[in-house]
């Protein structure tokens, strides 16, 4: 079979076999003492882990299935509990420690690692500034491998913030980024390229796919309405205001359009007010946080992600898994998940008019949309499965434990 452009691995990543083929298993090749797979602590200091938390839970569940001993470590709050508590039923151990600013924070990590030693301590943060010395505490405890995943690009313009971020990486053996272009932003501020490896995000296949009719009934939508959906926290980063601003432009061509916005956040009222001011409140449906968000994707004709910036958006990967074409912005992460013109369309960020044009174009050409959806599903299966992500991450652990890298103090 001739290989097309969308059959290739992402730039800057090691090519690894997909799940179900010969090659690396999620269970690592290297074994800890006693012949068991290395154990791992997955830790985040985030108050609202969101997509990062979903990534961690996905790794935890994949590794438990592979026979690892896994701990999810976090400070208890409503957002984190909602994200991590379900993993406990699968055999993942939960470790609740003091807030990172609490005087007992480091002692909490040290005590947990004393009682439950791990071979790997894997920190998950946005840009690394919020590490709060979790990695340093793990290194002090003698954990053999300290790894840190950065989930967002470095877009901070204040140069004074670089030194603390770089200092936070000193006790880290290996830095993982979730997209190639994101990795380059850290090279530019001084992180040595040989310390980093790119492991693209992955998601598990949907557990529930109710079908178009059932999903639309759940949302109160007619069977024949054109539906655009987005899923994400209502924050500035996600760019919802540009989608709302694009709505009247699309409605001029597709008068019965419904834009379904799934997600909660502090901008809910501002976005509702914007829709009312633009006269599109009847067409923009805010449904809040939904635990069944992935099932609701079946109601949509296409998925839109109007983000101002991303690392590697899980929402786009979940839409591809669900068989939807994706209209996204040409930003770090999204531009590596979505192949422009093949699995969806990419437009400039923060520009309502090009966004509206792309949505109108795909809504008016369902044949092209279906072809993009099928291509997106194939791309997900090749590059963005949870098993692939977990396998590549386990390989990073193995490299560090085998002495291929060392801490930069």
Give an account of the 3D structure.
The chain is α/β, with parallel strands linked by helices. The chain has two domains: 9-204 and 385-401, Rossmann fold (3-Layer(aba) Sandwich), CATH 3.40.50; 212-383, Glycogen Phosphorylase B (Rossmann fold), CATH 3.40.50.2000. It is 36% helix and 14% strand. It has 15 helices and 13 strands. It has helices at residues 50-65, 78-84, 105-115, 134-140, 162-168, 180-188, 212-219, 240-251, 268-277, 293-296, 314-321, 334-337, 352-363, 366-383, 386-401, and strands at 40-43, 70-74, 93-96, 120-125, 145-150, 174-177, 196-198, 227-231, 258-262, 284-288, 302-305, 326-329, 344-347. The strands form two sheets. It has a seven-stranded parallel β-sheet. A six-stranded parallel β-sheet has the order 10-9-8-11-12-13, with helices on both faces. α12 links the parallel β12 (326-329) and β13. It is globular, with a radius of gyration of 21 Å. The chain starts with 39 loop residues before the first strand and ends in an 8-residue tail after the last helix. Residues 1-9 and 11-31 have low confidence and may be disordered.
């Amino acid at each position: 079979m001739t290989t097309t452009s969308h059959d290739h691995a992402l730039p800057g990543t090691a090519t690894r076999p997909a799940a179900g083929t010969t090659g690396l298993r999620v269970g690592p090749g290297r074994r800890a003492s006693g012949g068991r797979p290395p154990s791992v602590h997955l830790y985040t200091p985030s108050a609202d882990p969101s997509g990062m938390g979903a990534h961690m839970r996905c790794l935890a569940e994949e590794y438990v299935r592979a026979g690892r001993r896994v701990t999810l470590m976090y400070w208890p709050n409503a957002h984190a509990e909602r994200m991590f508590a379900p993993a406990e039923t699968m055999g993942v151990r939960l470790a609740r420690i003091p807030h990172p600013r609490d005087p007992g924070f480091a002692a909490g990590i040290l005590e947990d690692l004393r009682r439950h030693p791990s071979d790997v301590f894997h920190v998950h943060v946005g840009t690394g500034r919020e590490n709060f010395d979790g990695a340093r505490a793990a290194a002090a405890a003698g954990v053999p491998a300290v790894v840190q995943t950065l989930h967002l690009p470095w877009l901070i313009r204040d140069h004074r913030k670089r030194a603390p971020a770089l200092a936070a990486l000193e006790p880290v053996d290996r830095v993982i980024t979730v997209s190639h272009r994101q990795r380059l932003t850290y090279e530019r501020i001084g992180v040595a390229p040989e310390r980093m490896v790119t492991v693209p995000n992955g998601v598990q296949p949907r557990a529930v796919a109710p079908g178009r009719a059932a999903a639309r009934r759940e949302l109160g939508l007619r069977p024949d309405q054109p539906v655009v959906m987005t899923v994400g926290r209502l924050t500035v980063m996600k760019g919802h205001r540009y989608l709302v601003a694009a709505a009247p432009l699309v409605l001029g061509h597709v008068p019965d359009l419904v834009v379904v916005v799934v997600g909660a956040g502090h901008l809910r009222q501002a976005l509702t007010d914007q829709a009312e001011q633009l006269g599109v409140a009847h067409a923009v449906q805010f449904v809040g946080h939904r635990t069944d968000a992935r099932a609701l994707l079946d109601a949509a004709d296409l998925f839109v992600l109007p983000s101002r910036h991303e690392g590697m958006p899980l929402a786009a990967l979940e839409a591809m898994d669900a068989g939807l074409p994706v209209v996204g912005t040409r930003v770090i992460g999204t531009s590596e998940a979505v192949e422009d013109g093949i699995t969806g369309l990419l437009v400039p960020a923060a520009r309502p008019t090009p966004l509206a044009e792309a949505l109108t174009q795909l809504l008016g050409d369902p044949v092209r949309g279906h072809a993009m959806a099928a291509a997106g599903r194939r791309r997900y299966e090749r590059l963005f499965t949870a098993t692939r992500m977990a396998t590549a991450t386990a390989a990073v652990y193995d490299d560090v434990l085998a002495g291929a890298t060392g801490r930069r103090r």
